[in-house]
Design goal:
mainly alpha; Cytochrome Bc1 Complex, Chain D, domain 2; 6 helices; single chain; 2 domains; binds heme C
């Protein structure tokens, strides 16, 4: 009997720990199949203004105004999968201009276990707009559908992005 109680005293906390760990893993891994690419486009363009640095084509070259050069990296060529994109969007990239978009980042251990105070002041990432998880999932769906793995930006992509084949895309027509 006593042994049974002892066993219980060990098993119950162990199970509790396990379920917390499973829950934590579940929270850290959103369901990327639920993303809505069209809503994600709004976030890319207007809510998160990714376009300011990565450009309309997300190639890091074509600006909001297609003739203006921008500074973000070329997301068409990224090797990141959905989870990798999620982590970068949530945590930014310390030491670069890439902002973070989760207000809890660097306040707990969700970004590689780093707190803001662990990062040298001149390397600390800047905070962008705060996104809900659902918004990040939509944004990733947008990147996966319209950006990642696409080659050079085309006239058709430009017209689709701006929702009109207006003159801002005409520079691509000759190609
Ligand atoms: C203030 C400018 C700026 C803004 C705004 C910005 N980025 Fe970035 N982003 C960068 C820079 C610069 C890099 C490259 C950092 C480096 O040198 O590794 C980058 C890198 C990335 C990467 C990593 C690519 C890779 O393959 O490693 C992803 C993904 C990304 N950005 C997505 C986004 C998304 C999505 C948004 C909008 C929510 C966004 N960025 C907004 C500047 C920006």
């Amino acid at each position: 009997m006593l042994q049974g109680v002892k066993l219980l005293a060990f098993v119950v906390p162990a199970l509790l720990c396990l379920s917390t760990a499973v829950l934590a893993a579940f929270i850290a891994k959103p369901d990327f199949t639920q993303g809505d690419a069209e809503r994600g486009k709004q976030i890319y363009q207007r809510v998160g203004v990714c376009v300011n640095c990565h450009g309309w084509a997300a190639d890091g070259e074509s600006g909001t105004n297609p003739m203006v050069h921008v500074q973000g990296s070329n997301l068409r060529q990224t090797k990141l999968d959905a989870q990798g994109l999620y982590d970068v969007i949530r945590c930014g990239i310390p030491g670069t201009q890439m902002p973070y978009h989760d207000q809890t980042s660097y306040k707990d251990d969700r970004c590689n276990g780093l707190l803001m105070s662990d990062i040298a002041p001149d390397q600390q990432p800047v905070k962008g707009k705060t996104f809900r998880e659902e918004q990040m999932v939509d944004l990733i769906a947008y990147l996966e559908k319209y950006v990642i793995g696409h080659g050079k930006p085309t006239y058709e992509e430009c017209a689709l992005y701006f929702e009109s084949a207006d003159k801002s895309c005409s520079y691509l027509k000759a190609n």
